[in-house]
Amino acid sequence: MGVVKITTLKQTMADFDVLLPEYESPWLFFSKKMPSLLEDIQSKMELCTCRKNTILFTQGEDNPDVYIVRTGVVRILTGDENGSEKHLMIAGPGSLLGNLSSLDGYPSLFTASTAEECCSLYRTTGQIFSRMTAEIPGFKDFLIQDLCAKMRILAGNISSLSFQTADTRIVRAFLYLIRESGSPCSRGIKINIPFTHQEMADLVYSNRVTVSRFFSRLKKEGVIEKVNRYYYILDVDYFYNYMNRLSGPHDESIV
């Protein structure tokens, strides 16, 4: 089992940023961009704590509450009447949730569900949130950034589903997990968000069989291992080299 050196990891992350620009990430993070504004917003909202798999609001719900993620991760999903679900994006600290309905008055387009055991969120009603939009200086700029980020994520989802194979989408998902939630350790890089094969399949618009097959290949080649619900990246260069040599849809994967 190899060990990833910190200097190598930093350089590899810089290479990842060239291959996968931050604006293409399916992760919403705003806490680092506008901390003072977030403090003003959060001071007018109620703090609540939710356990994993708590539904904050559902697709089609009228007048959902508006949330800002303080700590933890929230999954944004879409589904159909048969119960099938697909992940659209992952919301981290600083992300706004439920604000679209408060702006246009229509039912929620998505379902939001907490993905970590103890998520801390700020909450308020859509009516109060609309007043905050007018009262807090700079808040409209924050909303524009939020809407732009979500539009880019949704456009990226359409592009990847249309032009990339399942294996490539899985590799890209690993790269973003490494960048957003990875931490160096003695094994290599620990992904600090536990997930199942089915959850990965939902995230990359594939199926559990395809994901399991590719994960088995990665384990066999010594790229990843799973310990106590968490995945560890043993060979971070594998993902970089995979994307770096990718010049077209030449994977042998099935979607």
UniProtKB/TrEMBL annotation:
Listed Pfam families: cNMP_binding (PF00027), HTH_Crp_2 (PF13545)
Keywords linked to the UniProt accession: DNA-binding, Transcription, Transcription regulation
Identification of the protein by name: Cyclic nucleotide-binding domain protein
Domain Cyclic nucleotide-binding: 29-150
Residue ranges occupied by any HTH crp-type domain in the UniProt entry: 164-237
Molecular function via GO: DNA binding; DNA-binding transcription factor activity
GO CC, one annotated term: cytosol
UniProt keyword annotation of DNA-binding present: yes
PROSITE patterns, per the entry: CNMP_BINDING_3, HTH_CRP_2
Organism field: [Clostridium] hylemonae DSM 15053
Family matches, as PANTHER family: CRP FAMILY TRANSCRIPTIONAL REGULATORY PROTEIN, REGULATORY PROTEIN YEIL
InterPro entries on file: cNMP-bd_dom, cNMP-bd_dom_sf, Env_Response_Regulators, HTH_CRP, RmlC-like_jellyroll, WH_DNA-bd_sf
